[in-house]
Amino acid sequence: MNEASLVQDLTFRIHNTMLPVVDLDRSIDFYTQLLGMKTMGRRTDETRKVEVGHVGYGDRDTQPSLELTKDIDDGAPSEIGPTGIHVAIHVSDLQKLCDALGKACRFYSAS
Fold first, then answer.
1. Domains located in the chain, CATH noted
2. Which of 32, 46, 78, 84 registers the highest number of CB atoms within 10 A of its CB?
3. What is the pTM of this model?
């Protein structure tokens, strides 16, 4: 394959990253209250049996979002096990964030 792009006339951007969650309200609270994001949208999709919330920094039309997806099917799992899924968020003062999280969250060991 040569170095010329096959899609050189198109523009791209990251639209969203989907993360499965068990408690959508709690997850939205975490990202908005502790990480400074705003709610960009929320809906229920009865066909797919999911409730979806989008959170992020800025406008959903121009900025990427996290798509938090809660399974609402009768057989939905009660917890989501550890995975390699992650989102990297840069923060200006990590110690200040850790102090805030330590006051507001309980952390569990995966082992």
1. 16-74+89-104 (3.10.180.10)
2. 32
3. 0.76
